Structure formats: C-alpha cells, structure tokens
From TrEMBL:
SMART domains: PreSET, SET. It comes from Heterodera trifolii. SUPFAM superfamilies: SET domain. Its main location: nucleus. This is SET domain-containing protein. It is found in: Chromosome. Pfam families: Pre-SET, SET. Keywords: Chromosome, Methyltransferase, S-adenosyl-L-methionine, Transferase. GO terms for biological process: methylation. Gene3D superfamilies: SET domain. One of its GO terms (molecular function) is methyltransferase activity. One of its GO terms (cellular component) is chromosome. It comes from the Eukaryota. Residues 114-232 form the SET domain.
Length: 310
C-alpha cells in the first residue's frame, strides 16, 4: 500500500492507494480536491418549497428531465439519460431555502462516500476499483477539477478534461479539467463495456453557464470490479491517428470481448456473441446483487431479534 488515504480526509471515506505491479508512485503533480475550482460568480435560486417538495409544485423537479426514484437513484426505466439533452436540478441547502435540500429530490451526497481503492493496473496505468456493491442507477461520484475555458484548455493535456457546456453568446466552451486538481474520478479508465455513465446536474447553484458532471452506475457493480467509463469514439479515433503519426499503435487494455482497439492476441467475439455475453454478465451480476441484498436483510433481522431478546 502506497498510502492510506488519497483524499487526505477531504471525503466521507478513506481511499487507499495500492500498487502490486511496480514501483510507480501516484502522479506527484496531482492535488486531491473535493469540489470544483471555479472563480466565476453563480446564481443561487432554487425552489421555494416549504417543507416537503412535491412534483406539481417543486421548481427543481419540474425543470429536471432526469428523474430520481424513491430510493434515491437515477430512474433508468426509460433507458440511460442523454448527456447533452437531459439535466437534473436537485434540491440543495444553498439554493432551496425552504426544503434546504433535505427532501427526496436529492441524489448526491455532501461528500464522496463509496468505498473504493486506487490501484495500479498491469497495462492501463492507475484505475479505481470498487470495494462494495453498487446498484444500477446509483450515484457514484462527481467529476471534480478546475473549471476552465477552451482558451485555457489549449495549454493543458486534453485527455483528462470533460466538456461541460458551450456559452452560446460567446461560443466559449467550458471544461472541467482534473489534470492537476481533481478527485478520484480522474483515474477512471476506459472500458468498451463500461459500468459508469456521465450526466449533468445543478445543485449548489443555477448558473446555466456552469454546472456539475456526475457519474452513476449504468449496471450493477460488484466488489472487486473496476469502475470504468467510455472515452468515446472521437477520443479513440483522434488518439489512434496521433499514435500512427508517431509510428506507433494505440491499444485498449479493457477486458471486454468486443473492443475498439484490442491489443494483439486479445480474444474477441463478433457483435452477436458479444451481445449475448453482455446480457449474461448483466443477469449474473444482478442475481449476485439480489443475493447480497437478501443476505443484508437477513443479517439485519437477526440483529434486531437478538437485540429484542436481550
């Protein structure tokens, strides 16, 4: 173990750093932060609900095209939210003076609270591995970094940044860049069968030229599984082209069987077989999750019975 806690107490849980592959240390220029670095002012008007927020009267609920389930997850009944077309406006203590963000229309925690570890992978640098069950639709983490314009971004490595929005009047692109200042999401690796999806949301402000990016579980995740995202076809095409110009080749080191850029000798399936394998894994993981949830209920029941017996 390299260190006990990458976050140095800034989050709700410790994030251990483990390297059993080589002697590489974590990036020396990286500084862990829990909130975005953004110097621009923001508007802070949310809903004006008093007490319990209700769908017919709560402005935050009405403005949201992403919906939250009663058990506090993103509603996936209609499929995965569209990153560019859908938004979530959640209630928060700084924007909603009535409910103070204590109502049911709240998805994100005050601090990152998932039990994960940063670990060195054999071929893909650093990665993030879950140490707990995470259910599909569950919020995992906010993407945190420096909020910069495309002009500032020109002088930075682009591979870590996420485009947040474009200000229409000025055509200025806004990015969140975690290259030097960021949180655990900076280390999410790519997978061609990713288990996290990004979405845009507004919480502590309502400034539409800004916003936040979060990641939720797009499928059930088991302990020991790496947390991964899809870097996107544009990213791969651009970087494959750049590698070719330098006389090299870029390979994807995910473990999926239908890969965008498989390394030489990597086992691959055709589309139909890969689709069947995907369905099998989804069902198997879900059954495992259900067994775990039932086990938790049984343990809680026994604990209550034991307490009452005493």
């Amino acid at each position: 173990m390299i260190c006990d806690n990458l976050a140095e107490g800034r989050e709700g849980v410790d994030i251990p750093v483990i390297n059993t592959v080589d002697d590489t240390d974590i990036p020396f220029a990286f500084h862990y932060i829990a909130k975005n670095i953004d110097k621009d002012p923001r508007k802070t008007e949310g809903c004006k609900c008093v007490g319990v927020c209700k769908p017919k009267t709560c402005e935050c609920m009405q403005r949201s095209s992403i919906k939250i389930t009663k058990d506090g997850k993103i509603n996936l009944s209609s499929g995965l939210p569209d990153y560019y077309a859908q938004l979530l406006f959640e209630c928060d203590k700084t924007t909603c003076k009535g409910c103070q963000g204590k109502c049911e229309w709240r998805l994100t925690p005050e601090k990152f609270n998932k039990r994960v570890e940063l670990f060195k992978t054999p071929n893909a640098g650093w990665g993030v591995r879950s140490q707990q069950f995470i259910e599909a639709g569950e919020f995992v983490a906010e993407f945190v970094g420096e909020v910069v314009t495309h002009i500032q971004q020109e002088h930075r490595p682009l591979e870590y940044a996420y485009k947040l929005t474009t200000i229409e009047k000025t055509q200025i692109d806004i990015f969140i860049d975690p290259y030097k200042y960021g949180n655990i999401t900076r280390f999410f690796n790519h997978s061609c069968f990713e288990n996290l999806q990004p979405f845009r949301f507004y919480s502590s402000h309502r400034d539409m030229t800004r916003g936040s990016i979060g990641f939720f579980a797009s499928r059930d995740i088991l302990p020991g599984h790496e947390l991964t995202i899809d870097y996107g076809g544009d990213w791969w095409r651009s970087n494959i082209k750049d590698a070719a110009k330098r006389g090299g080749k870029l390979h994807c080191y995910c473990d999926w069987v239908f890969c965008i850029a498989p390394w030489p000798g990597k086992l691959q399936m055709d589309y139909n077989d890969a689709h069947k394998e995907r369905k099998r894994i989804l069902m198997e993981n879900h059954r495992t999750l259900l067994r775990w949830k039932q086990g938790e209920k049984d343990r809680q029941k026994k604990t209550v019975e034991k307490r009452e017996a005493n």
